[in-house]
Amino acid sequence: MIHFGRVFAMARAELRLSFRLVRYWIFSALALIMACVGFSFHSGLHYFVSGRGASFSLITPRFFAGSYGIQFLLIYMIGVIFLAFDVRARDLRERMGEVLDARPLSNLELLLGRWLGLLVATYLPVLLLALLMLGCGSLYGENPEPTSVLFLITFQALPTLAFCISLVFLVVLLVRKRLIAALLLLGLWIAYLSAFAGWLPTQLTSFPLMDIMGANGFGPQTTTTFPSDITATLPSVGGILQRLAVLAGALGLLLLASLAHPRRDDDSVARNGGLAALLLACLVAAGLSGYLSMRTAVKDFRHWSKVHEQHRSDPAPDLLALRGVARIDPGTQIHLDLELELGTGHEASLGSLLFSLNPGYAIHQVEVDTQPCTHSFEDGLLRVDLSSPLSAGDRATVHLVADGLPDEAFAYLGDGESPLEAKLNDGLIFLLGYRPLFFEADDFALLDGVRWLPATGAEIGRGAPDLRGSDFFDLDLVVDLPEELVVAGPGRRQPLDDAEAGRARVRFAPGAPLPGVALVAGHYVSRTIEVDGVLLEVLLDDDHTAAFDVFEDAGAEIQTWIEERLSDAKDLGLEYPYDAFTLVEVPNALRGYGGGWRQDTTLAQPAMALLRESGFPTARFDVKFKNPADFADVEGGMGGAKKAALLTFFGGDVIGGNPILNATRNFFRDQTAAIGPGGLALNHVFSELSERLIVDDTGYFSARLFKAEQGNQTIQTTLMTSALNGGAGPDSSLRRNQTQRVGVWDTVLTVSLKTLDPRKKPQDTLDVLTLKGGGMVRSLLDGLGRER
Question: To 5 degrees, how large is the angle CA 729–CA 688–CA 762?
Answer without folding.
Answer: 90
